[in-house]
Amino acid sequence: YNGYSWDGERFVYNPFSVLNFLEEGRFKPYWMATGSPEFIVEYAKGVQLDISAFEGMKVYDSFMEKKDIDAATPESFLMQAGYLTIKGYSDNKYTLGFPNQEVRRTFSDLLITGQYDVKDSDILSVAENLTKALGEGDTEEIVNQFKVIFSSIPYMYFDSNKSEHFYSAVLLMYLQAAGFDADPERIGNKGRLDLSIKFENHVYIFELKTDKPSVAIQQIREKNYGGKYANYEVINIGLKIDFVQRNIVDWKVEV
């Protein structure tokens, strides 16, 4: 519940969520119950928000000067609504991001269920099966659950977003909504990785390509995406996606 900042230097906890946690003794998205999430859903449908774009986004310190919602950029609107916060400040620029896991998870859930019409029951089913697969290191079942994720998205969203990035963004939103420790395209010293999942002492690194999965594995290796996870057992998985099938059609794993 920590992570809120208005200057990038001082950070505070959300007192409402903390007090509710102390009373109930359970981690829950308490803050969301105080807002109007349906308004965010309608806003998201109009501008087609991409959750991965907001992690580490750089903006000038004047980015919130427009007060009119219709004229404001998505990052300005989400900052004022409490979904984004300032993570750092330098050279007249702010670095933005989600304050904490509570906001990141609930925002992902809003987008995947509201913007892409995914059912809560589908997310719950994937969460249960994927948790088991990640715990057992069952890479075949992990990929199968990714296929289930893509199958649960209505076809028209894929037809209007034919890019590798859209597929990785869908996975990110779905996995974060399901409660997994999934990261977007974090910048490493040699580039960006598509997606990673931390689970216990393992890190699963995924690269999505329209080319052969071996090409994805080669990129993971050459860019050393797993280099920062020296204290974990790293599993690299290359995924081949097909815009006609709207899903994964081939995959390769390297430990």
Walkthrough of the structure:
- 41% of the residues lie in helices and 20% in strands.
- The protein is globular, with a radius of gyration of 19 Å.
- Helix 2 (37-47) crosses helix 4, helix 4 (101-115) packs across helix 8 (164-177) and helix 5 (120-136) packs antiparallel against helix 6 (139-151).
- Strands 4-7-8-9-10 form a 5-stranded mixed sheet, with helices on both faces. The chain has a 3-stranded antiparallel sheet with strand order 1-3-2, with no helix packed on it. The protein has a two-stranded antiparallel sheet with strand order 5-6.
- Strand 2 (85-90) and strand 3 form a beta hairpin.
- By secondary structure, it is α+β, with helices and mostly antiparallel strands.
What radius of gyration results from the CA coordinates? 19 Å
User: What is the helix tally?
Assistant: 9
Strand content: 15-25%
- Tell me roughly what share of residues is in helical segments: 40-55%
Give unreliable regions as ranges.
none
Distance between the termini: 35 Å
Taken from the alpha-carbon principal axes, the silhouette is globular
Mean residue pLDDT = 88
Kindly state the number of beta strands.
10
List the helices and strands in order: HHEHEEHHHHHEEEEEHEE
Largest sheet: 5 strands, mixed
- Give the class from helix and strand content and strand pairing: alpha+beta
